[in-house]
Amino acid sequence: MNKPAELKLDVIPLWIDGRTVTQAARMGDVFNPATGQVIRRVPYADAKTVDAAVQAARRALPAWRDTPPLRRSRILQRFLQLMQDQQQDLARRVSEEHGKTIPDAAGSIQRGIEVIEFACGIPHLLKGEHAENVGTQVDSHSVRQPVGVCVGITPFNFPVMVPLWMFPVALACGNTFVLKPSEKDPSASIRMAELLKEAGLPDGVFNVVHGDKAAVDALLTHPGVDAVSFVGSTPIAKYIYETSARLGKRVQALGGAKNHAVVLPDADLEFTADALIGAAYGSAGERCMAVSAVVAVGEAGDPLVKLLAQKAKAVKVGPGDREGMDMGALVTGEHRDKVKGYVDQGVKEGATAVVDGRGLKVKGYEDGFYLGTTLFDHVTPQMAVYQNEIFGPVLVVLRAKTLEEAIALVNANPYANGAAIFTESGGAARRFANEVSIGMVGVNVPIPVPMAFFSFGGWKSSLFGDLHVHGMEGVKFYTRTKVITSRWPHQDTPAPGFHMPTMG
Ligand code: NAD
After folding, report:
1. What is the CATH number of the domain that holds 233?
2. 263 and 250 part of one domain
3. Which residue from 63, 96, 97, 346 has the least number of CB within 10 angstroms?
C-alpha cells in the first residue's frame, strides 16, 4: 500500500482504509475518447481486495455511527468547499476520460455538489417524532439510525455526479461506504476520496474499489454489506436488485431510459427545437435523462423536423477540451460502433435519416471515438431505434394524431425515467403530468432532473426498488427507523401484567 502523496497518474489506484492500492492480478485500460489513446491503467479488485475494503468500512462504522451528525456535517462542509475549489480540475479529468465537453462536465459536477449542500443539513433531516402520553405515563419517540456498510455501483456517464447522489447522504446519515465506480472513467472517484480525507473524514469511512462483474459480485455477496445503491443499464440493475434482495440487503437499482418529449402544435417551435437539440445531443446523448424520442402531435411534425434538422447539422463536434464544442466523442470505440450499428439498423428498417452522423471525421483526431448527430423521422414503435436505449447522439421522431395517442405511446414504453411536454396550454400540460407513468416530468423543460432537495428516480424498468436517490428518499434509504416506547414508573403506576398491553 502506498501513501496518497505517491499516487501515480498512470495507474489509478484503489482506495482502502485511507490508503491507495495499486496492485491487482487484472488491470484494465482507460482511454481518452477524444484521441482514442489509452492514457491510464486501472487495477481490477478481486474478492480478497473487496473483502479488505468492506472490512475497513465495518471497522470504521461504530465510531462514525456515533459521531454527532453536526460533526459529520462539518466534515462534509469542508468537503463541499474543496469540491467547489476543485470543480474545474475535476471537470477536466471527467472530460479527458469520458469525452464530454469541459463546461458540460462542470455543470454535472455542480449538480453533484448540490447533494453535498443538501447532506450538510443532516442534523435537521435526521430528527424523529415524539409523542407524549401515548399511554398513561408512556411516551414514544422515533429515531433514524444508519443502515451500516453501504455500497454504490455507478455508471460511466456521470463519474462525479452519480456517486455524489449517493455517498454524501449515506455518510451524513452515519453509514460507511464502498464505491465501485465505472472502470471506464475511474480517476475522479479517487480524487474525491483524497478530498474527503483532506476534509477530515476518518480512514475506512469511504473506500473505492475498481473493477467489473467480479468486483460487483464480491460486493453483492459479501455478508458485511448492508445496502446497495446502483445506477446503470436496466439488465444489470435488475440483476443487482434480484441478487441483493435475495441476500437480504436493502437495494435501490436505477436503470436505463428512453425519454420522450411530446410536442403539441401550439408550442413555441423555435424554443422547443433548441431545447430538444441540447437534450438529445449534449454529452453525445450519453445521459440517462437525454431526450431520445420526440412525439410530434398533429401539425407540429413537419415544421419541427425541419428546425431539428437545421440545428442538428449545426452541432459542433470535437475534443471535449476544445473551446466552443457542443458535443465530444463517445466513451469507447466499442460503444461508438454499437450506436453506429443502431443507425444502420434504423436505415434498414425504413426510418427516414433526415441527418446521418455516420460519416463524421474530426480533423487531427481521426482515431477518436466520434459519431455525428443523427435525426430519424417517421419512426414507428416497432423499430429497433425506438425500442432500445441507444445512449448516443441519435434522436428519433414519431408522429401522433392527438395528445391522448402521445400519452398512450409514452406509457406503453417499458422505460419510465423522464418525459417532457412542450405546449402553451396549461390544461394539456396538467393532463400530461397527471397521466404519464413516469418518475420525472418536465413542462417546457426538456431534462427535468430534480434538484438535490427533491429525489431523483424513474418508474418501471428505470428503477428497481422503492426509494429514489438523494432528497428525503435518500435519507430514508440510508437510515432505518426505530420507535422507542418509554415508561418511568411511579409508585402509583400499576405493574405490567401478562395480557397484551393496551397502554390507555
Ligand atoms: P452498465 O450497466 O454497463 O454499468 C454500470 C455499473 O455496473 C458499472 O460500475 C459496471 O462496472 C457495472 N457492471 C457492468 N456490467 C456488469 C455485470 N455484468 N455485472 C455486474 N456489474 C456490472 O452502465 P454504463 O454503460 O456504465 O452506463 C450507462 C447506463 O446507465 C445507461 O443505460 C444509462 O441510462 C444508465 N444510467 C441511468 C441513470 C438513472 O438515473 N436511471 C443515470 C445514469 C446512467
Report:
1. 3.40.605.10
2. no
3. 63
DSSP string spanning 91-144? HHHHHHHH---HHHHHHHHHHHHHHHHHHTTHHHHT---EEEEEETTEEEEEEE
Measured CA to CA, the distance from residue 285 to residue 99 in angstroms comes to 12
Q: What does the pLDDT look like over 392-443, one tens digit per residue?
A: 999 999 999 999 999 999 999 999 999 999 999 999 999 999 999 999 999 9
E runs forming strands in 119-216:
130-135, 138-146, 149-153, 176-180, 206-208
The residues near 334 (Cβ < 8 Å, ≥ 6 apart) are: none
Whether residue 389 has its Cβ less than 6 Å from ligand 1:
yes
Distance CA 4, CA 21 (A): 9
- Enclosing domain of residue 131: 10-255+462-483
Alpha-carbon gap, residue 415 to 397, rounded angstroms: 17
Q: Treating both helix axes as pointing N-terminal to C-terminal, what angle do 161-172 and 69-85 enclose, rounded to 10 degrees? A: 160
Q: Is 233 in the pocket of ligand 1 (CB under 6 A)?
A: yes
Among 158, 216, 287, residue to substitute to test ligand 1 (most atoms within 8 Å of Cβ): 216
C-beta of residue 218 within 8 angstroms of C-beta of residue 62: no
Ligand 1 near 213 CB (within 6 A):
yes
Residue with cell 414503435: 381
